[in-house]
Amino acid sequence: MTEMDNETWAEVLSEALPYFKQYVGRTVVVKYGGNAMLNEELKTAVMHDIVLLNTIGIRVVLVHGGGPEINAMLEKLGKKTEFINGLRYTDGDTMDVVQMVLTGKLNKEIVKLLLQCGGSAVGLSGVDSGLLRARKMEKNGVDLGFVGEVMEVRPEILESLLSQGFIPVVSTVAMGCAGDPSCYNINADTAAAEIAVALKAEKFIQLTNVPGVLRDVNNPDTLIKQIAREAVPSMIATGMISSGMIPKIECCLEALKGGVSRTHVIDGRVPHSLLIEMFSDRGIGTMIV
Which Gene3D superfamilies does this UniProt record tie to the protein (predicted)? Predict the structure, then answer.
């Protein structure tokens, strides 16, 4: 690593200072994608970044997925993973595994990492305090099992933790709505966007395993840094936004519609991408405004 001289350090800090002032006391919801969590060194760097944000007074909520870990556990158990229209078919046995991996193993691993990095973190799921309420989802008339769509967010537990300086770490398993005793597997991007709206967040950031929206999917140098939300439908129609990027951008649109000021899709594989996005003029990834 090249050592910066004093003048460069001063420039970096001077550039970051206005952003410190802008975001202190504000809420930022970070969705940490399953595929962006596979490298342990990068995972630790992300946790350091989140602790830094929390330390200077930014209220951070971390919402995580865990698709690769769920797949690995299902494979160990000899159970086939089935996807329908890009969503995991979740029967009763699969739902048990989802809860075990997301709310148990993975959630507590993230909390432990945050604690080791000097933060104060609390792990919870959408079931805790009735944070997320969902109903059974059917996609194009197809039964997906225990896959749900969020109908209600009760953010009081998050507000309480944030007011005490904690970093809430949320796994996306939800309770059924009144009268429904089931629990549901919720898409983590969607849940994070809904939580951002409920908390009136200043920013909603999705950390994923792609650079952002690219004009040419095979060339990371064609990154589109900013997109007006009015341009999104035509970009989907022409295929510039396609495949797995469509639901991520749609979640950004939902967050914007709900009052979130800024939404971003950034590359969690880039060390300290979160800090670059938050505290520099150049930013990183794609911003939807």
Answer: Acetylglutamate kinase-like
